[in-house]
TrEMBL record:
This is CCT-beta. Its main location: cytoplasm. The chain crosses the membrane at residues 556-577. The keyword Protein biosynthesis does not apply. It comes from Plasmodium ovale wallikeri.
Length: 590
């Protein structure tokens, strides 16, 4: 009797499974890893991202960066595993700030090694089990190698300074890393009681050099003081509000009123003015001498404030008001009845300062110092944007260090410690799982290898020296990128956050397991694909109008393509001829 297998997919849909599906995942992961691995380390190179749309290209909306998360979120990918790696990088950026490139490169190398094992007839589940065992040992060895100091001690502040310098070493700010590392540490210590990076305002102003950037002692608001008002005020009692301050509500909201005479219109406007006057009197009754409003302040209420010697600042942005309220220890009010006890903010002085070509308002002598402002200077907007991204990464990793004060050594030292521990585990495990564990250790050693390759050094020789030093018990051996040799990382002062490193290896392993466990993929039918393509086109048009992107498309290969790749490219690929692989992938990119 013939068995009938029902077609569960819609007509025109395509399903790939087994070797073909795994090949798709493999190609996607390797392509993404190769895309960003050249940016890894202190000598990593930058990428230039160009918008897809013509308008964006003509308006020079280009981005120059070596930040892994920025590169990957700007690239349009059409491959399932590629998207997994992008998500992993974004999560690493949101949580830790640092390690966004390393986590993608590590996951890519794990998949590369796993594919080699599968070619040798080792089942994917055995590889997953081996990787899980290796991850457990790697985490244990990383925990043993970490160290910490009390968060209130001066030694811990030195640790934070070294962590910030390590993060900035691979960024645009590397030549001024001492200056910006100190700036980042001072800023993060200002908000140590509330570790919310939104409380750190970064203002970018063209002009000068990046070394002219500084941390403002007070708080800067990107607004100007009202017309005919004093440009300097001391002993300020500040009310922060989010309320409408207009009298022409009928005109604004389009209300239609039938009247019999012009006198009725005048009575209506007078009534509106009386309501506004009463509202302003209620505000004044709380004893403030500065009024800052999220919305516009129209001429009539501004006149009343001026007559009562009250400084007004209007149309303040919401994020700026939130930071200012934290800095002044005030609350944002919306109702002003006299019986309410509204908490006013206080600062010693408000004055208008000029930064670049713009006038801004400075609040000095703030009561709480719950927020702060960093002024970035630079020659162009591209430099300022990349400086902001670099500084954000340093601030994020410092915030993570304040939450967990444990520190590990960088410069490939931690990866080598974990790699040796995993290799020792492989010698004690019987069966095919030991091969998967060895592959995991090899993937960890690729991180220092790529750092050295990007620096133009002989990675094979130096990594071999590092491995020998660690085998002899010198667990401080790492990369001295300046001299191109093995050095004492503790003496070099190259530190990293324990949480950031732990998150990096854990996320990379989980991403690899998710990709390797899948054995089948289905592509939508042509009708559905056309609908989805139209939706994507609209999304991309809207996205590229305001942000930059470059396009990389990794297609789903058919069986003929698989045979060509399997019998012609795989042997070359495993003998380390990357140019052949790159030519093949470039030929299939759309």
């Amino acid at each position: 009797m013939n068995t009938v297998i029902p077609d569960v997919l819609k007509q025109g849909a395509q399903e790939d499974k087994g070797e073909i599906a795994r090949l798709q995942y493999f190609v996607g992961a390797i392509a993404v890893g190769d895309l960003v691995k050249s940016t890894l380390g202190p000598r990593g190179l930058d990428k230039i991202l160009t918008p897809l749309n013509i308008e964006g290209a003509r308006s020079h909306q280009h981005t120059v960066t070596n930040d892994g998360a920025t590169i990957l979120k700007s690239v349009w990918l059409d491959n399932p595993v590629s998207k997994i790696l992008v998500d992993v990088s974004m999560q690493q950026d949101n949580k830790c700030g640092d390690g966004t490139t390393g986590v993608v490169v590590l996951a890519s190398e794990m998949l590369r090694n796993a594919e080699t094992l599968i070619e040798n007839k080792i089942h994917p589940q055995i590889i997953c089990d081996g990787y899980r065992m290796a991850l457990k040992i790697a985490r244990e060895s990383l925990l043993k190698s970490c160290f910490s100091h009390d968060v209130t001690s001066e030694i811990f502040k030195e640790d934070m300074l070294k962590i910030a310098k390590t993060t900035l070493s691979s960024k645009l700010l590397t030549h001024e890393k001492d200056h910006f590392a100190q700036l980042a540490v001072n800023a993060i210590l200002r908000i140590k009681n509330n570790l919310n990076l939104d409380l750190i305002q970064i203002i970018k102003k063209t002009g000068g050099t990046i070394k002219n950037s500084y941390l403002e002692d007070g708080f800067i608001l990107e607004k100007r003081i009202g017309i005919n008002q004093p440009k300097c005020l001391t002993k300020c009692k500040i009310m922060i509000a989010n309320t409408p301050m207009d009298t022409d509500k009928i005109k604004i909201y389009g209300t239609k009123v039938n009247v019999n005479s012009f006198e009725d219109i005048e009575d209506l406007e007078n009534e509106e003015k009386m309501k506004m006057k009463k509202k302003v009197e209620n505000i004044i009754s709380h004893g403030c001498n500065v009024f800052i409003n999220r919305q516009l302040i129209y001429n009539y209420p501004e006149q009343i404030f001026r007559e009562n010697d009250i400084m007004t600042i209007e149309h303040s942005d919401f994020d700026g008001m939130e930071r200012l309220a934290n800095c002044l220890d005030a609350e944002i009010a919306s109702t002003f009845e006299k019986e309410l006890n509204i908490k006013l903010g206080y600062c010693e002085k408000i004055d208008e300062v000029i930064i670049g070509e713009d006038k801004l308002i400075r609040f000095s002598g703030c009561k709480k110092n719950g927020a702060c402002t960093i002024i970035l200077r630079g020659a162009s907007t591209h430099i300022l944007d990349e400086s902001e991204r670099s500084l954000h990464d340093a601030l994020a990793v410092l915030a993570e260090t304040l939450k967990d004060n444990r520190v590990v050594l960088g410069a490939g030292c931690s990866e080598m410690i974990m790699s040796n521990a995993v290799d020792n585990l492989a010698r004690t495990v019987e069966g095919k799982r030991s091969l998967a564990i060895e592959a995991y250790a090899k993937a960890l050693r690729q991180i220092p290898t790529y750092i050295l390759d990007n620096g133009g050094f002989d990675s094979s020789e130096i990594v071999s020296k590092m491995r020998a030093q660690h085998t002899k018990g010198n667990t401080y051996a790492g990369i001295d990128i300046v001299n191109g040799d093995v050095g004492n990382v503790m003496e070099l002062g190259i530190y990293e956050s324990y949480n950031a490193k732990l998150s990096q290896i854990t996320s990379a392993t989980e991403a690899r397991s998710a990709a390797r466990s899948a054995e089948r993929s289905a592509e939508r039918s042509e009708e559905r694909s056309e609908e989805r393509s139209a939706e994507r086109s609209e999304e991309r048009s809207a996205e590229h109008a305001s942000s930059q992107a470059c396009a990389v498309r990794l297609p789903f290969f058919h069986f003929s393509t698989f045979l060509f790749f399997h019998f012609s490219i795989f042997p070359l690929f495993y003998f380390s001829i990357p140019s052949t692989f790159h030519l093949f992938v470039r030929a299939h990119w759309k």
